[in-house]
Amino acid sequence: MKLIGVTSCPSGVAHTYMAAEALETAAKAKGWDAKIETQGAIGIENELSAAEIEAADVVVLTKDIAIKKEERFAGKKIVRVTVTQAAKQAPEIIAKLESMLAQA
Predict the structure, then answer these.
(1) Is 9 a catalytic residue?
(2) The CATH number of the domain where 41 resides is what?
């Protein structure tokens, strides 16, 4: 499975990066490929390429504030979570995604 995502929080500092790291770690623990873009106080980092977006099975977007360039994900399976959920419940999110994708 290939997971991509974007994390962003209102202040654009610690929680943005904590959420990205937690999602990547939880996905990789399941043997998934994962790349999470961050949109923080210093702008977009680890930006997703068109090829990475095309290859993704699922996209996780945080919903605390608007994601920049969200139109890139049109037509993809998108799951929205809060930045706090991503940071604190990433293994549970990945398990739910795994179940959702298995039923598709």
Answers:
(1) yes
(2) 3.40.50.2300
Q: Whole-model pTM above 0.85?
A: yes
Which two structure tokens, joined as six digits, stand for 6?
A: 């974007």
Helix or strand run (H / E) with residue 26:
helix 14-29
Q: For residue 92, what are the domain limits?
A: 2-103
User: Partners of 48 in the beta sheet?
Assistant: none
Catalytic residue among 4, 6, 9, 83: 9
How confident is the model over 52-94, as pLDDT tens digits?
Answer: 999 999 999 999 999 999 999 999 999 999 999 999 999 999 9
Q: How far apart are CA 87 and CA 104, in angstroms?
A: 26
